[in-house]
Amino acid sequence: MSLDQNLNKVIIIDFGSQFTQLIARRIRELGVFSEIISHKKIKVKDINQSVKGIILSGGPLNVYQLNKYSFDSKILELRIPVLGICFGHQILSKLNGGKVKQSKHREFGLANIYKKGNSLLTKNFFGKKKSKKVWMSHADQVSKLPKNFKVVSSSSNSKYAIVENKLKKFYGIQFHPEVTHTENGKKLISNFIFQICKIRKNWSSKDQKIKLIKDIKLKVGPDKVICALSGGVDSSVVAQLLNKAIGKKLYCVFVNTGLLRKNEEAQVVQTFRKRLKMNLIYVNAEKEFLKKLKNISDPEKKRKIIGNLFIKIFERYAKKIKNVKFLAQGTLYPDLIESKSVTGSETSKIKSHHNVGGLPKKMSLRLVEPLKFLFKDEVRKLGLELKLSKDIISRHPFPGPGLAIRMPGIITNEKIKILKEADYYFIQALKEHGLYHKIWQAYAALLPVKTVGVMGDNRTYEYLCLLRAITSEDGMTADFYEFKKSFMQIISNKIVNSIRGINRVVYDVTSKPPSTIELE
Ligand code: XMP
Fold this sequence. Notes:
By secondary structure, the protein is of the alpha/beta class. The protein has 13 helices and 18 strands. The longest helix has 22 residues, at 299-320. It is globular. The two termini are 41 Å apart. Bound molecules: xanthosine-5'-monophosphate. Xanthosine-5'-monophosphate (XMP) is lined by residues 335, 338, 351, 353-355, 397, 399-401, 441, 475, 512, 516-518.
């Protein structure tokens, strides 16, 4: 295995935690380069001069399950500062002669920790109260501290919540500083990087752009790439990255599934073919999709059908262009963790996102997914760096399966037509009232129920339209947006008065979790 030779960096050794990518993200936010490497792959000989700090991630294992993980303990003899988080803290203690055992009380969720000693790691972390709320998630804990380690902080259940061996620059944290629930957690990571490892800032959106372009060139070589372009933020950023990396060897395929938002196909063609001058192949597959989806109401079936058909269509067009070996997709990190585990640990499947779960097992194209370790807001910054228009960059996310998953029950032409209009009026109203950019994602959905209404002197019996608008940081958790009553009145009147087929509008007031952002 090879590490990037030049940049000073932190290595994150991954033991399968679902938060490993969050650690990397926090380090990127601090303006520093990091690389994630599986515990199974990293050996002491791989660690060169550029590695200035090592972070051992959490993970679902127990430090005594020696056959389930591997770790080259010579890494700890390199005199490089080490920060162990959760399982990483336990393994660091064990390898230094401490003991770990199952806790009497498993700790999941918020806990208070208290300052017990000074440390560079906690400089300006605790504040006057000498206490902080932190996010714990562990069943085991360190029960005996190794020689020359001291306690920096404890909670009522974890005596060794933060520990250090100042001389060796080894630090252990039982909780998760990388998650937002931990108050001021980023300060701990920042102290480790800047105060202890003494790394200087060396990483920005521009650096990230350059590295991604370089990686694409390396991966793709002389071959051609077909890119699944939807016109949304993610695939637009991917297309522009590839455009910069390989220019005319990129072929963007835009499939009109018939399940897009109103006027979307015209806008995409205008932007990518006319303005950005990319090779754009427009495929009108409306009929094909609707035929396959006829009478299907199960959400997972809809997703699978759409995902599979998408890939089939790509392959069909890929065959027409010689030497296409790759398919580029705008998969993001949250798409991956919700569909399957990327770290090797088991996480439960919530939905099959169409760009992941829908892939057939035998695909004849290799994947290029340059955004798969990034979060949405990072992709937006990257898009600005790539000089994409603000219109594209700040667009609300739109899922691959499109309106199909905003229309519980079976899909019909009539429903699609109604839903396109409702969504259009809602989004227009958000823009007109200056709300669009305050909201992370908003859409209209059509529920498969009809209710009675009265218009003029007539009884109506029409569909129920659900509006959803949420705030979020990365789509992994979300809160519903609180509209003023006046806005809700305006939009409900507009929809009911303008669209034949809807006579009632409701607003979704659930957060994620327990709901998800989409309905299906
Ligand atoms: P959920 O509904 O899982 O949505 O809370 C989280 C975010 O992911 C988007 N989403 C998808 N994006 N393909 C995509 O590209 C999909 O199959 C898919 N399903 C959901 C959703 O719109 C939200 O932004």
